[in-house]
């Protein structure tokens, strides 16, 4: 996320009680987890093995748990628990604002858009023109919805990322990484009933123009779905996946995090996608492979008894 | 769907700007996509390979993109884009009516029925007697619910069919087929929490008397589920499937569109059903097959290393 | 469930019209199905093969369809249809209380807890301190929620158990076992959007302290999830399962009823768990097995054509 206006790094240091090392004149323009950093961002690192990646990333200000050499022009904020410091900054700059009504006064709703009863629209939400938002939909704070979008009943946009740091030494071991990303729904998207699309941890979860989702689809934090995709019911896509344009996922497909499904790929029903897939092909099964090869594999399995008989005969 | 009263075919031609060929005295009594047509219906066809099927169907009035020979007693409405003309008729005769309140004044609720808070009941909905509709349920316009039905919280009845025409030449390639069918829930049905049952494209999605659905079940457009079926949590059934009486589907089963599962069939958990299944048997796996045969197959797979050892020995 | 105050067994007998055999001085302190009985409980049995289990259980008062020898200190309530008698007691002592408003006056909400708009909170619900209940959540009567709990939008806690008795001789063959159990959510639990957690038939469904659930997870009646578990999106767990502490279930996993997943077990995405799993191991596939063994199995399947070639060569 980006701040509304830049904040002096000295103010950030004071807020989280960190020792400032390096360029103390810097202005922070946003806050992002490591996968989403851009220049001006504050990020954090708390494992030594990720120090280099973090120090060499686009991030300008790094919250870190060891005083190391500062890269040229950057600043370190040194303290014991960078994760908690990062979370406290998220809470400070993107605080949870409890709602006083079902449709926030700070939400902007475009002309020609119909909001059905029992819908919740949170703070700072933007909904475009000529949309239909069906009953009992929930749109969390900061979501952005384009023009000519249809969202069916019961769908939830912008719930928190499912992202925790393990603290094995504590009684409650999972420590929540507060999310400050958004959900962005582009023009002409239709989302079925009972879907859930989570906000990004610090970046955006995006559903591209013209993409159509059936019912009960789950899309994890920071996943980017391209244009003109077709996603059938009960598909689940984990966080930070990239689904390129014109992809078709049939019913109950599961897609792992941090991977890419290439343009125009088709994944048949109930398949599981553990790693990236090239575009332009049809896939099936777990792990999802070329559908024809997979069908042959199924046929081969049925021939095992015949092979065994042949082997027994040869043994005689 | 059927019209409230018949409409002259000449009026239909004028509405959509089509050339009328054939019997101009006809009255249209309804509008249906090709799989659901009955006499009196208007239907449409836009692929030459489906012309014969459409012209020989029960449909009385066919919207078509070529002037062909008219079957005896029928009428053709000729224009360039039959799909868009059909959609415009659906919008005309079954317009979306935005709600002004959570429970429409045109809804009819039977005696003894309890509607819990935060429920949405749309226009022209009928709910029978002695039902319980739990909180945050959404019932779209025109749904029909019998007596002694229980619907648990968060369930959505009557969202739009997931049905699009591909227009590869456009920027937004999926063109929505507007649905005008209904959802019909018969007596003594219980539907769990968080289910979604879509309306038919032009016919009805039906859940038969005494059938019980667990939570988070998706049922696609136009699917007909028989009486006394048992469907466990997270099952997904695609559009236009026929599930006969006394079928049992266990958890997370996926069922393809346009197929029949015969009376009394049992499909074990997580199975996938790509094509029709005979009644009275137990099925398992993907593709769902006789459960005992499938278990044997799993056992054979475990024997492959043993077979290989034997083959290696023979080779020596 | 336990009664608010003990009830004379003679009153119970009169209520259900049963013949009382055995100790007529007893006080009933609760009502439970056979898997959950404790001393003082009323339970029921209607199959001769379960008579011994029921008579020798902790239950003090047994509703039964045959006059048999009464165990020392117990009482039998004899009538033709014990199931219906049991259900009538549930309805008497835990009646459905229709709501007159979205948040019941009998609900107790702790300090610092934020309830967002469009939430339903039923009668006798307890919500602890510093919780956030997001929009369109439904919490049925009698649920108990601890401190520092987050529940995301559209989630449903406490819907009825999916539990029916088959009455093959009737037109509507599935007869509902009314549930009187509860859902208990312990401290520091986070539940994602669109989840459904059913109440127990007579005992409690429990989510243990610090456990984190992603979106669209279904948890069946009476299931007990331990502390610090991590459950990814679209997982389904059937009724009366026991998930021990620190278990991780990845996306779309399905878990059967009446089993135990041992402490610290990890079940990889899309796996199916038909029976109990030992703790401390990683599992995969259907049926879920040691993940490394399963991966080898997948590799062996790919070698079948090679084995077949070798067999053919040997045959020459």
Overall description:
The structure is a homotrimer of 316-residue chains. In chain A, the strands form 5 sheets. A 10-stranded mixed beta sheet of chain A has the order 8-11-14-19-22-25-28-31-33-34, covered by helices on one side. Chain A has an 8-stranded parallel beta sheet with strand order 7-10-13-18-21-24-27-30, with no helix packed on it. The mean pLDDT of chain A is 97. Chain A is an alpha/beta fold and 316 residues long. The first copy, chain A, starts with a strand and ends with a helix. The first copy, chain A, has 2 domains: 2-93, Udp-n-acetylmuramoylalanyl-d-glutamate--2,6- Diaminopimelate Ligase, Chain: A, domain 1, CATH 3.40.1390; 108-294, 3 Solenoid (UDP N-Acetylglucosamine Acyltransferase, domain 1). Chain A has helices spanning 9-16, 51-55, 82-93, 291-302, 304-315, and strands at 2-8, 19-22, 27-31, 41-45, 61-64, 75-78, 108-109, 114-115, 120-121, 126-127, 132-133, 138-139, 144-145, 150-151, 156-159, 164-166, 174-176, 182-185, 190-191, 196-198, 204-207, 212-213, 218-219, 224-225, 230-231, 236-237, 242-243, 248-249, 254-255, 260-261, 266-267, 272-273, 282-284, 289-290. Chains in contact: A-B, A-C, B-C. At the A-C interface, helix 4 and helix 5 of A face helix 4 and helix 5 of C.
Task: Please give the structural blueprint.
The structure is a homotrimer of 316-residue chains.
Chain A: E1 2-8, H1 9-16, E2 19-22, E3 27-31, E4 41-45, H2 51-55, E5 61-64, E6 75-78, H3 82-93, E7 108-109, E8 114-115, E9 120-121, E10 126-127, E11 132-133, E12 138-139, E13 144-145, E14 150-151, E15 156-159, E16 164-166, E17 174-176, E18 182-185, E19 190-191, E20 196-198, E21 204-207, E22 212-213, E23 218-219, E24 224-225, E25 230-231, E26 236-237, E27 242-243, E28 248-249, E29 254-255, E30 260-261, E31 266-267, E32 272-273, E33 282-284, E34 289-290, H4 291-302, H5 304-315
Parallel strand pairs in A: 3-4, 4-5, 5-6, 7-10, 8-11, 9-12, 10-13, 11-14, 12-15, 13-18, 14-19, 15-20, 18-21, 19-22, 20-23, 21-24, 22-25, 23-26, 24-27, 25-28, 26-29, 27-30, 28-31, 29-32, 31-33
Antiparallel strand pairs in A: 1-3, 2-6, 16-17, 33-34
Keywords (chains A, B, C): Acyltransferase, Lipid A biosynthesis, Lipid biosynthesis, Lipid metabolism, Repeat, Transferase
GO biological process, one term (chains A, B, C): lipid A biosynthetic process
InterPro entries (chains A, B, C): Hexapep, LpxD, Trimer_LpxA-like_sf, UDP_GlcNAc_AcTrfase_non-rep
């Amino acid at each position: 996320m980006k701040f509304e206006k830049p904040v002096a790094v000295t103010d950030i240091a004071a807020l989280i009680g960190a020792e400032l090392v390096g360029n103390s004149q810097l202005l922070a323009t946003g806050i992002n987890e490591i996968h989403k950093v851009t220049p001006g961002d504050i990020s954090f690192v708390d494992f030594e093995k990720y120090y280099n990646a973090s120090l060499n990333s686009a991030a300008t200000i790094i919250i870190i748990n060891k005083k190391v050499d500062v890269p040229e022009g950057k600043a370190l904020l040194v303290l014991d628990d960078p994760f908690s410091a990062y979370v406290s900054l998220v809470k400070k700059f993107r605080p949870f604002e409890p709602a006083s009504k079902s449709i926030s006064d700070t939400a902007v709703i475009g002309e020609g858009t119909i909001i059905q009863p029992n819908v919740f629209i949170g703070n700072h939400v933007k909904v475009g023109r000529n949309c239909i938002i069906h009953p009992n939909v929930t749109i969390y704070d900061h979501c952005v919805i384009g023009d000519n979008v249809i969202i069916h009943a019961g769908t939830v946009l912008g719930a928190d990322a499912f992202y925790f740091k393990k603290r094995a030494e504590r009684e409650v071991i999972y420590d929540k990484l507060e999310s400050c990303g958004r959900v962005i729904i582009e023009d002409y998207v239709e989302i079925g009933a009972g879907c859930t699309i989570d906000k990004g941890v610090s970046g955006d979860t995006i559903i591209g123009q013209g993409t159509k989702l059936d019912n009960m689809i789950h899309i994890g934090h920071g996943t980017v779905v391209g244009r003109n995709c077709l996603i059938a019911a009960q598909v689940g896509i984990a966080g930070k996946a990239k689904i390129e344009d014109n992809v078709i996922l049939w019913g109950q497909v599961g897609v792992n995090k941090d991977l890419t499904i290439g343009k125009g790929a088709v994944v048949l029903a109930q398949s599981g996608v553990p790693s990236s897939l090239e575009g332009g092909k049809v896939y099936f099964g777990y792990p999802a492979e070329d559908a024809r090869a997979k069908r042959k594999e199924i046929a081969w399995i049925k021939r095992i008894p015949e092979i065994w008989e042949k082997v027994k005969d040869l043994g005689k």
